[in-house]
Amino acid sequence: MGTLLPSRFKRVCVFCGSSPGKNPSYQLAAIQLADQLVERKIDLVYGGGSIGLMGLVSQAVYDGGRHVLGVIPKTLMPREITGETVGEVRAVSGMHQRKAEMARQADAFIALPGGYGTLEELLEVITWAQLGIHDKPVGLLNVDGYYNSLLSFIDKAVDEGFVTAAARQIIVSAPTAHELLCKLEEYVPKHSGVAPKLSWEMEQQLGYATKSDIAR
Prior knowledge:
By secondary structure, the protein is an alpha/beta fold. The chain has helices at about 25-40, 50-65, 80, 95-105, 115-130, 150-160, 165-170, 175-185, 200-205, 210-215, and strands at about 10-15, 45, 70-75, 90, 110, 140, 170-175. About 40% of the residues are buried. Residues about 195-200 have low confidence and may be disordered.
C-alpha cells in the first residue's frame, strides 16, 4: 500500500458501544478503525472509559502513539462504571456537556456498532449538521450490515417526505474503516442548513458549547 496523504482531520470523535457485542467482527472493526486513525496520524475523541468497543478503540489508538481524549460526565467517572480511561480525561457536568465538548473537539464523527447511547449521539450530530450548526463529516461504520435497518429507515423517511434527499447525504457509510475514512476525507456537504444563522442562544444559556465552538 502506498503512503497515505496527510489527513484533513486532526481529531475524530468515535461513538460506540460500552459492550463488545456478540459478533467478534465488531471488536475487529474497532481495532481496525483505531489502526486507521494511527496510520493517518489522527487523534481520538471519545466518551471515556475502557469497557466494550470504547475500550478497544481507545487503547489501540493510545498504544499507537496518538493522543486520546476521553470526555466523561462526573457521575460516570467511578472505575467500576466505566473502567480506567487511557490518555487525557476531561470531566464534564452532564451528558449534554459531554456531547457538546466531543463535538467541539472533533473534525469528524464515526459511529461503530452500539446501542441507545451510540444512536442518540449519532443522530444528534446528524441533526446538528442538518440545522447548519456544523458541516463536519459523519460516518457510519456498517460492520456486517449492523446498520442496514437504520439506513433503510432513513431511506423510508426520505420517501415519506420527513428527510430531504440532500440531508440524506449527511450520512456517509461503509463496511470497513479504510473505505469509510477515504469517503470522509472526500466528503463535501451537499445540503444547506435549515437555520444556519441562528444564534442558538438557548444552548448558550444552558451552558452548552456554542454553534461557533462546535463548527470550528
